[in-house]
């Protein structure tokens, strides 16, 4: 008996270990293939296009291209500026509003903005900020005297300021979310009490005590934001500059050029973009180290007040502007979706109609179904993989060493180069354009977010509950599902909702693996964004924002209702 | 002298403490004991001006005949010590002490501040660890430095929230002794919240027992 149960236990462990190895290989292989598919063509080697010898020709072509330098300058400025400002705004918002009722309201704004795909926010912002947008309409003609849309460039501006704004609106809530989660780890309340009791102003304590402790905890998310801001494509296509566009968008156009030779130049550009991310991250980190070194003396110089207080308060106030812009962008989408006639400078449409949505309903239904299927499958797979790997990590952390090292790479590597590397493999393996390939690529991007969200609560779970359940003669598998996973329900639901939101937001992975044969709400919305068909785009973007938003709300509501329902149901039979 | 008069504490319409009044003279330690949830820590937070939302408290706090309950924490000049020493982990031991010194208020220059902080470290025989991070210290050393840091900020009164509870029994005794010495030297009113009856005896202090609305 003992021998048999030992055998079962051993077999189970081996099976789990084997599965985790397979998953790790499954994660690493596409990353390596993607990198190889990008790096090799960058040096003129791509047998599929009969290029069998290595050369530096793609690099030569890259630096000969006239738009490269302008693109690079825009990318660096917009990427670094957006990351820096998002960080300042997020940190200041927390520092100013921490332990106040405002913070509760701020927390409520995070989930909806986090859930909405980047492209939907960008489309909404275009509807709000453009010369004929909602913002100008709100103040016209009574304040501005405008009877016609003004001739100015407020979106897709050549300095990428609107792109920076869109990135700030989307990334600041994410950073706030990360900071709020990190503050629990550093006894923030007590440290503030100690500091203020010594006569320091609250903002001084935040600057001298909390910030140096907080930064190491949010370093990785900050680098993820930096990498994202430097490489984002969908957002730049909608709201970014055109002539020249950001470097990632330039590469995207080259990859899709009918002249296949452009792919080699694009690959060289993709490698350059990876180097730019690396250099920018090093620059960012060096700036932090230099500032810390100079600031170190100030930590203990005894000065109770900080000169930065007005700056921090101003930055915190700008978060309110971000939220207002995000909410306006959200509200304007359904308005355009149901508009029949909306003349400038009317604040609201003069006539409403369901005609457009009725006209589009077959297409919208198809797109919504495809988007949901892809999102649900990839998220459920990501959840299953995350649970399996976290269980492995709990049992033996060394077993997930490689998985932990590689899982965040897709978040940092530029999608534009990395995915086209994978596309080469997909074409070679005859999988390009299949639903399976799209789900696979979505999984690659959904998995890190789900794993990251779940790992804290999962690893902090008190295993004694599970052991207690087994001791009470429950089967280990039943105990795992009925006790452990049931207790982790809120975290599982949150991770699921985040996974859905991430999947819904994917533009390039869908486009790369789907090859135009598989379209989602996001790919269609981005493709139509430049068309000027506001009603059509409004419909697409509205649905694109609606599904993740509803699922996010359900994820917060369902675990509570589920428990209440179960308790009420049980009490009927008591 | 610290005085609190007619202190009332309510949590969601449930009174926790009613009409509590007491006085602590300079150099005196008053101990507050009571079961969990009776409002000890909330009273401490009220005295420090850091009462959490959800609790309603009222009562007059006077420090040397000056009313201070309307002042913010940073204006009250209060010293607080918690169960954990809360030495700032990113600062060296010396920097932790320097952080507390109000150079402007005390009219000290940079060198004098450093000398003062070093003299405090010397009292503990820890000059060699001045430029080390707090992780280099033992539990007892951390507790002592935390107390000295608090006192270096020249508080007008001191609040101790179970500061010995995480120390082992032997260490607890010596840290208690050290705390009492320092409090006497500083000559400021001190309120100690504890669960440990030995603390009362060791500190030789007056005792207030809080028992869910029954104060003895």
Overview of the structural elements:
The complex is a heterodimer of chains A (574) and B (216). Chain A is an all-alpha fold. Chain A folds into 2 domains: 1-55 and 354-574, MetI-like fold (Orthogonal Bundle), CATH 1.10.3720.10; 72-353, MetI-like fold, CATH 1.10.3720. Chain A is built from 24 helices and 2 strands. In chain A, helix 21 (489-505) runs antiparallel to helix 24 (534-572). With 216 residues, chain B is of the alpha/beta class. Chain B has a domain at 2-84 and 159-166 and 191-215: P-loop containing nucleotide triphosphate hydrolases (Rossmann fold, 3-Layer(aba) Sandwich). Chain B has 8 helices and 10 strands. Chain B has helices at residues 40-48, 73-76, 93-100, 103-106, 110-123, 139-152, 169-186, 197-203, and strands spanning 2-11, 14-24, 29-33, 55-63, 66-67, 78-81, 157-161, 190-193, 206-211, 214-215. In chain B, the strands form 2 sheets. A 6-stranded mixed β-sheet of chain B has the order 6-7-8-3-9-10, with helices on both faces. In chain B, helix 7 links the parallel strand 7 (157-161) and strand 8 (190-193). In chain B, helix 3 (93-100) packs parallel to helix 6 and helix 6 runs parallel beside helix 7. Chain B is globular, with a radius of gyration of 18 Å. Classes of the chains: A mainly alpha (574), B alpha/beta (216). Chain A binds chain B through residues 99, 101, 187, 190-191, 193-194, 196-202, 208-209, 212-213, 296, 299-304, and chain B through 48, 50, 53, 72-80, 82, 84, 86, 88-91, 94-96, 98-105, 110, 113, 150, 153, 155.
Summarize the helices and strands and which ones pair or pack.
The complex is a heterodimer of chains A (574) and B (216).
Chain A: H1 2-42, H2 57-64, H3 67-97, H4 101-115, H5 118-129, H6 134-138, H7 161-183, H8 188-197, H9 202-231, H10 234-239, H11 247-255, H12 262-299, H13 309-337, E1 339-341, E2 351-352, H14 355-395, H15 401-406, H16 409-412, H17 415-428, H18 435-460, H19 464-471, H20 476-487, H21 489-505, H22 508-514, H23 521-529, H24 534-572
Antiparallel strand pairs in A: 1-2
Helix pairs in contact in A: 1-12, 1-14, 1-17, 2-12, 3-7, 3-9, 3-13, 4-7, 5-7, 5-13, 5-24, 7-9, 7-13, 8-9, 9-12, 11-12, 12-17, 13-24, 14-18, 14-21, 14-24, 17-22, 18-21, 18-22, 19-20, 21-24, 23-24
Chain B: E1 2-11, E2 14-24, E3 29-33, H1 40-48, E4 55-63, E5 66-67, H2 73-76, E6 78-81, H3 93-100, H4 103-106, H5 110-123, H6 139-152, E7 157-161, H7 169-186, E8 190-193, H8 197-203, E9 206-211, E10 214-215
Parallel strand pairs in B: 3-8, 3-9, 6-7, 7-8
Antiparallel strand pairs in B: 1-2, 1-4, 4-5, 9-10
Helix pairs in contact in B: 3-6, 6-7
């Amino acid at each position: 008996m003992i021998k048999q149960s030992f055998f079962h236990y051993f077999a189970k462990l081996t099976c789990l270990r084997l599965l985790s190895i397979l998953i790790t290989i499954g994660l690493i292989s596409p990353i390596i293939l993607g990198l190889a598919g990008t790096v090799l063509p960058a040096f003129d080697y791509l047998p599929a296009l009969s290029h069998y010898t290595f050369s530096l020709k793609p690099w030569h072509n890259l630096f000969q291209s006239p738009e490269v330098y302008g693109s690079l300058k825009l990318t660096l400025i917009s990427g670094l500026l957006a990351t820096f400002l998002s960080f300042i705004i997020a940190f200041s918002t927390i520092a100013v509003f921490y332990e106040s009722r405002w913070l509760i309201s701020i927390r409520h704004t995070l989930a909806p903005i986090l859930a909405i795909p980047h492209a939907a926010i960008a489309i909404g912002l275009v509807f709000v900020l453009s010369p004929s947008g909602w913002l100008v309409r709100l103040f016209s003609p009574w304040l501005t005297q405008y009877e016609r849309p003004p001739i100015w460039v407020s979106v897709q501006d050549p300095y990428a300021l609107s792109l920076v704004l869109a990135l700030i609106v989307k990334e600041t809530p994410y950073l706030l979310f990360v900071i709020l989660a990190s503050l629990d780890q550093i006894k923030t309340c007590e440290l503030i009490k100690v500091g203020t009791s010594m006569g320091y102003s609250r903002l001084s304590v935040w600057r001298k005590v909390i910030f140096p402790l907080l930064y190491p905890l949010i370093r990785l998310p900050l680098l993820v934001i930096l990498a994202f801001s430097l490489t984002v494509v969908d957002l730049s296509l909608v709201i970014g500059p055109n002539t020249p566009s950001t470097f990632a968008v330039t590469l995207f156009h080259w990859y899709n050029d009918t002249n296949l030779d452009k792919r080699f130049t694009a690959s060289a550009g993709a490698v350059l973009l990876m180097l730019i991310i690396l250099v920018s991250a090093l620059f960012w980190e060096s700036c932090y180290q230099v500032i810390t070194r100079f600031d170190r003396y100030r930590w203990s110089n005894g000065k109770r007040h900080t000169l930065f207080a007005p700056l921090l308060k101003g930055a915190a106030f700008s978060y309110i502007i971000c939220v207002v812009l995000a909410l306006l962008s959200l509200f304007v989408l359904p308005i355009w979706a149901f508009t029949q006639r909306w003349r400038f400078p009317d604040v609201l449409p003069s006539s409403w109609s369901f005609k457009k949505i009725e006209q589009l309903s077959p297409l919208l239904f198809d797109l919504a179904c495809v988007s949901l299927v892809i999102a649900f499958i990839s998220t459920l797979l990501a959840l299953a993989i995350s649970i399996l790997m976290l269980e492995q990590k709990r049992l033996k952390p060394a077993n997930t060493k490689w998985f932990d090292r590689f899982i965040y790479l897709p978040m940092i590597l530029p999608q534009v180069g990395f995915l086209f590397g994978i596309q080469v493999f997909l074409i070679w393996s005859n999988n390009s354009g299949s639903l399976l390939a799209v789900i696979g690529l979505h999984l690659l991007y959904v998995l890190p977010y789900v794993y990251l969200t779940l790992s804290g609560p999962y690893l902090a779970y008190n295993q004694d509950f599970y052991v207690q359940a087994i001791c009470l003669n429950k089967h280990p598998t039943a105990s795992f599902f009925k006790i452990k996973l049931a207790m982790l329900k809120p975290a599982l639901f949150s991770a699921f909702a985040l996974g859905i939101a991430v999947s819904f937001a994917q533009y390039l992975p869908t486009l790369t693996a789907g090859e135009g044969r598989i379209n989602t709400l996001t790919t269609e919305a981005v493709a139509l964004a430049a068309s000027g068909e506001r009603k059509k785009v409004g419909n697409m973007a509205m649905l694109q924002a609606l599904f993740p938003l509803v699922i996010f709300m359900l994820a917060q509501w369902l675990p509570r209702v589920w428990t209440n329902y179960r308790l009420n149901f049980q009490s009927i039979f008591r | 002298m610290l005085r609190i008069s007619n202190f009332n504490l309510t949590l969601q319409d449930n009174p926790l403490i009613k009409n509590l009044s007491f006085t602590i003279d300079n150099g005196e330690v008053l101990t507050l004991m009571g079961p969990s949830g009776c409002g000890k820590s909330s009273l401490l937070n009220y005295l420090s001006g850091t009462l959490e939302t959800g609790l309603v408290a009222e009562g007059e706090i006077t420090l040397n005949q000056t009313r201070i309950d309307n002042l913010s924490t940073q204006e009250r000049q209060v010293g607080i010590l918690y169960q954990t020493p809360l030495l700032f982990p990113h600062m060296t031991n010396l920097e932790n002490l320097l952080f507390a010194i109000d150079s402007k208020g005390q009219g000290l220059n940079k060198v004098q501040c450093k000398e003062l902080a070093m003299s405090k470290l010397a009292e503990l025989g820890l000059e060699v660890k001045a430029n080390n991070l707090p992780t280099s210290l033992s539990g007892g050393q951390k507790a002592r430095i935390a107390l000295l840091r608090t006192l270096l900020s020249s508080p007008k009164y001191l609040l101790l929230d179970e500061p010995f509870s995480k120390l082992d029994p032997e260490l607890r005794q010596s840290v208690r002794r050290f705390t009492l010495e320092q409090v006497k030297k500083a000559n400021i009113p001190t309120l100690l919240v504890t669960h440990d009856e030995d603390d009362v005896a060791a500190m030789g202090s007056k005792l207030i027992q809080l028992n869910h609305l029954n104060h003895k």
